[in-house]
Design a protein that fits this description.
By secondary structure, this protein is an alpha+beta fold. The protein contains 9 helices and 15 strands. The strands form 3 sheets. Strands 4-5-6-10-9-8-7 form a 7-stranded mixed β-sheet, sandwiched between helices. Bound molecules: biotin (BTN).
Length: 331
Amino acid sequence: MTRPELEHLADHVLAAIRTRPKQFFTYASLAKKLAAEPAMVESAVRCLIDWGYRVRRRRREAVSFLEAPDMLTAVEIQHGLKTKLIGSRVHCYRLIKSTNDLAAQLGESGSPEGTIVTSEEQSSGRGRLGRVWHSPAGTGIYVSIVLNPKFTPERAPGLSIMAALALATVLEEYCPGDVRIKWPNDLLVSGKKCAGILTELSAERNRIHHVVVGVGINVNQQGADFPPELRTVATSLRRCTKRRVHRVSLLKEFLKQFEKEYRLYQKSGLAKSQKRLRKYSALLGRKVKLVTGAHEVSGMAVDIDTNGALIIESNGKRLPVAAGEVTVAKE
Ligand code: BTN
């Protein structure tokens, strides 16, 4: 049996034994069900153990499922995933440069809408405005989602905002009352950055080819896991909840919420999300400075409109701003 064949069998053994956790399944019965030899089932069980699954074995003849590892694998992500579109195809890696780069290639080569790419670690994780996204192994979530919306390119920036809203809704479950969106798409917990979104568009003038929404979430990092320059400005869910957070569960909750927000966005834009956007905003009612290219605007952030633009009131005028870097002025 080749290694890929063995891994394929291990996937099937896993699917069979996790239907009834803690119940013992004999190798003979699994072999019959899966058209294999009992010795192959035994090797497949060893393979599952190598992958980090916890099982109980009885006299090398029977096995029962105990626990899955908190690893971002296609099998774990798709197990019990309650979505129709997002995560219909899942590509998982241990180490790649950037999940956004790979998702863009997949989008280019016609991978269906809802395809996702995850990696346990990124060697060149990218943030907005050419920044680096620190992506250490096994502690965070790095995921990119391929979308093929039918609307025109000017509605694409709102996708970042809708993604931020999906993420805020899920993070709120872990840190109630502590989550804010710093427009357009930084997620803050207790005032520090916990997650970020990088949306990249491939389009012609009137038509979107595909969009990649890349999301990085700091999940189980402890203070010392951040490089010194980030320690005072970044946080993780673990730092806020004081416990380890199960990454696979968190990712599945996010994908489900993302699908819901995406459907709403396709139907009504951000019109029905205004109240929640205001609730989570870190900027409304504060004095801000916004930099876009060579331009700088200072004023009061007063609203977020139905296109997701930030409305800044400056010298008695309300200016809608579609993109840029905002800093909160010291009061
Ligand atoms: C930011 O806040 O500047 C956006 C950060 C986005 C990081 C994610 S991690 C998954 C995806 N792959 C990347 O290279 N970047 C995004």
